Amino acid sequence: MTSEPATRTFPSPFDVPAPPGAEDWRRLYPEYYLFSEERRDFEENKFWFFDGLHNPEPIYPFDAIMTESWWVFLNQFLTRVWQVPPASGIDQRLVNGYLYVSPTTIDDPAEIEQRVPVFLERAGQYYANWDEIYDKWIVKAEDCIDRLRKIEFEPLPDLEPIETVTSVRGTTSAWDIVHRYDELLENMHEMACYHFELNMLGYGAFMTFSDFCKTAFPDMPDQSIARMVGGVDILFFRPDDEVRKLSRLAIELGLADAVLDNDDPDDVLRAMGAAEGGDRWLAALEEAKDPWFWFSTGTGYCHQHRSWIDDLTVPFGAMQGYITKLQAGESIDRPLDEILRERERIASEYRELLPTDDDRAAFDETLALARKVYPYVENHNFYVEHWHHSMFWNKVRDLGRVFQAGGFLVDSEDIFYLHRYEVHEALFDMLTAWATTNPGRPRYWQDEIAERKRIMEKLRAWAPPPALGKPPEAVTEAATVMLWGITTDMVEQWLDAQGGNGDADGGPAALNGFAASPGVAEGPARVITAVDQLDQVELGEILVCPITAPSWAPVFAKIAGAVSDVGGIMSHAAIVSREYGLPAVVGTGFGTRQIETGQRVRVDGNEGTVTVVDE
Amino acid sequence: MNAAVAHIRWLEECDASSASVVGGKCASLGELISIGMAVPPGFAVTTHAHDAFLSRHAVRERETELLQAVDYDAVAEVTKASERLRDLVEDLELPEETAAAVRDAYERLSDGDDVPVAVRSSALAEDLSTASFAGQLQTYLWVEGADAVVEHVRRCWSGFFTPEALSYRHRQGIAAEDARMSVGVQQMVPARSAGVLFTLNPVNGDRSKIVIESTWGVGEALVSGEVDPDRFTVDKVTLDLLSTVIGNKQVEHRPDPSGGGVVVGEIEADRRSLPSLSGEEAVALARMGKAIERHAGQPQDIEWAIDADGEILVLQARAETVWSQRERPPTVEKKGSALEYVLADLLNR
Q1: Domain region containing B65
Q2: B26 neighbors B318 (Cβ within 8 angstroms)
Q3: Would the pLDDT of A331 be above 90?
Q4: Where does residue A614 fall: left (phi above 0), alpha (psi -120 to 50 degrees), or beta otherwise?
Q5: What's the pTM value of the predicted model, to 2 decimals?
Q6: Is B149 contained in some domain?
Q7: Contacts of residue A112 in chain B, CB cutoff 8 Å?
Q8: Which chain B residues touch A522 with a CB distance below 8 Å?
Q9: Where does residue A221 rank: exposed (0-12), middle (13-18), buried (19+ CB within 10 A)?
Q10: How many CB pairs under 8 A join A and B?
Q11: Helix pair A442-461, A420-436: axis angle to 10 deg
């Protein structure tokens, strides 16, 4: 990389124009989420990058509850609970509806010094008792989900049921809705606390081992580190395992054709219902669904990514692939024993290569801690983002149905165009009308939502630049590198890419990213930008996507390699690719914009490059 | 003839324990064969044969006589003695039983047509570990025909008396009657690609890497620095290919189609920047290097070739000498607990 004058910079967040027709986008979000004159000096001097990892699309007003949950509950653990010595919080802002984030590190040695004993005492307690704490964590998380399950929203009755009188409870349906909505929000924030209770300590332990390895063995591939630490009993492979089981059962019952012949899940269910023995299969499906099909087709952070439990297209599509493979005599089992054996072999061979006994002791200590925290690191996604959040979105939908029944929303899904404070307002609008039996103002909400739909449409068509503000000299902040996969080189590439015409189009034929899973593959590209396009993926294609979610796992059985715009070595695409032995390059920045479906591309998972081989 | 005094010994009959009979190089090739490596077939002309030759013609007596008065600090005197001894050896015939054994072995190696071979001295193992060995090792490549092989064995024996070899033996205090050499005769590989392999990263001593340098044709172009080779880095533990840097390979050494050695040819423009190894071949070489290192118990420096059929052959394996002899600094400062390592890591970012 040639050194460039330090004057190179990304656009100021204050100079980013709104897409035409969406000038009014700010009204969709709370004021504190926006760049403002009040904090201008602070904001302009920071480096902001686009968080496409968690939120590839503009954020729906209601969905901001999810990004805010980590804005508060993750950062509080970094700064106010553990006092991670060099880490300040990771800030957030919205630009044209897209989430930009900005991590900060503390540079003042005196301040760091002061934080050290606090960190050692507090983090020390957690690390020392990790297994017990993680067991309790599972209980807390399941209890939180259980309480969420019990929150129910029912349309307002014309007349209160007689039980209101006979039970002498004093409270009513109106109070129930208000109370349960509050409960719903609290439940969400409670889960957010649990989410981040262990997150940063988990990643910190992993990074310590990773950094040790890379010091001992320069340029050690990230995937080697992940292979030494990673387990195989990972919950987020479980939904896919259930799909494999159902595939085998369909064959066993002689009902494979019911799956193979029908692309619409409803037709599959009907065919199974009509077939002899189909009831056994349907019972097995029901058994698997809860909780394993509470599995978002996205990251879980956005309501529009429905989970399998609501839309069986993804698991049933995968089932067709598995059945075809099984019928062709191929194995669909993940080679678990082999993965475990390899994990031990790789660790012991690297260990042997270390120069001193002290180093071997450090290797043992840091590997043991990394492995200890890893079940949480790998499994929390299922509890939090998939199981809990998918259920949470459905509860919000139930409330939307109450609004729809009350004539306040045209469609129950429209509730997501209001942010959570506005839902309170709309709720009281509806309740005052219900209580007085006089008109409320449903038209006000319906008109506002129609306008917001128009604005969101414009925002969706806008391509967010990868970064804004002042670029750092070097990217060192741990979460930035590890979670988001952003490196100093990548920032340089973004600066290079914007050098020409201000965007990434017309860039070079080779893209660089993280070598996330080894191997080289070549094949026709399939660019997928939304989960509902997943069924287009054909055997042997190279998947090119903004980001993948765990529920995309079945599609990995079909593809020859994977490329993502965002994500580091611990991103889902990376983990799943390693599991499937597919070459993958993640965090390419511009893959989905520079590659077109049908182009022949070469994915080099050893070097971290993606090349368009022909046009 | 009794095996203990055999004039030749096939490489597959050699191992580390035969070094005193077949020299270090042939012994190590025998070791490689014993652990399943593909090594070009060949045989050693043993130290017994050399001994018999030296005794038959009273060469040792002549040597003792000539060297008695030599002042080793006077280069001219050593050179003069060397010339006399070499003239003597080159005028002598190989003992008939040795020549017959060499011819017979060569014909078995050839299996019909005369096969090109390398004839090179294989010094005794204890000498190999020192760096001051230059000048004693003779190498003749692409030798064809039984007569030529016999002739080159004699040339190697003549090389036993180079001024460097004489001085070396004097410095080491090796008496004339204790000194001897072996000569290796081994099939040449008409290599498609060839090069060297280190079982550590020669740039920084990182032992978790295997670095391969490769070029088109036989390896001489690479060893002599005539080409900018391809460089492959493979992870020693996972055997993942980590990086590939393609060099600009202007020339290659290839067998002369008319027989008799190699010719240096310019490489066609479009082939210069093509990788001389596939990724799979680089990984297969690394796997081979790893196995050899494991057997030897220390980092290795290996010469290899790949023939037209894609078969990998080991030409030579020896201990790496640069990084292996340095002290290796520790990776981290020792801490009392995993938590302290985490803290140190957070503070070091």
Answers
A1: 3-187
A2: no
A3: no
A4: beta
A5: 0.80
A6: yes
A7: 347
A8: none
A9: buried
A10: 130
A11: 160
Q: Does an H or E element contain B12, and which?
A: none
Assess whether the previous peptide bond of A335 is cis (omega < 30° from 0). no
Same domain, B158 and B77: yes
Chain B residues whose beta carbon lies within 8 Å of the beta carbon of residue A208: 338, 341-342, 344-346
Contact assignment for B346 to A356 by CB distance below 8 Å? no
Phi, psi of B26 (to 5 degrees): -65, -35
Which residues fall within 8 angstroms of residue B262, CB to CB, at 6 or more apart? B141, B142, B218, B220, B253, B254, B255, B256
- Give the per-residue pLDDT at A508: 47
In chain B, what residues touch A217 (CB-CB under 8 Å)?
A: 206-209
What is the identity of the amino acid at A242? E
Look up the CATH number of the domain holding residue B249: 3.30.470.20
**Does A354 contact B at CB distance below 8 Å?**
yes
Q: Kindly state whether residues A467 and A514 are assigned to the same domain.
A: no
The first and second tokens of residue A281, run together, are 């299969």
Question: What is the least distance, in Å, from the CA of A112 to any CA of chain B?
Answer: 8
Residues B76 and B35 in one domain: yes
| Alpha carbons A113 and A107: distance in angstroms, whole number | 11
- Tens of pLDDT along B189-238? 889 999 999 999 988 899 999 999 999 998 888 877 788 899 999 999 99
Is there a contact between A369 and B347 if contact means CB atoms under 8 Å apart? no
| A380: Cα separation from own chain's centroid | 12
Q: Are residues A12 and A107 both part of a single domain? A: yes
Interface probe with A: pick from B238, B323, B325, B340, most Cβ of A within 10 Å: B238
Return d(Cα B163, Cα A593) in angstroms, integer: 70
Q: Are residues A21 and A99 in the same domain?
A: yes
Number of structural domains (chain B) is 2
Residue listed under structure tokens 């940063």: A200
pLDDT in tens, A427-442: 999 999 999 999 999 9
Tokens 């332990």 found at:
A205
C-alpha–C-alpha distance, residues A255 and A267, integer Å:
13
Same domain, residue pair B64 and B178: yes
* Whether B123 and B212 share a structural domain: no
Closest residue of chain B to A520, computed from CA coordinates = B279
Taking CA–CA distances from A357, the nearest residue in chain B reads: B330
- Sign of the Cα torsion A361, A362, A368, A369 reads positive
Maximal CA-CA distance, chain A: 82
Closest C-alpha to A98, from A380, A464, A392, A413: A464
CB A568 within 8 A of CB A488: no
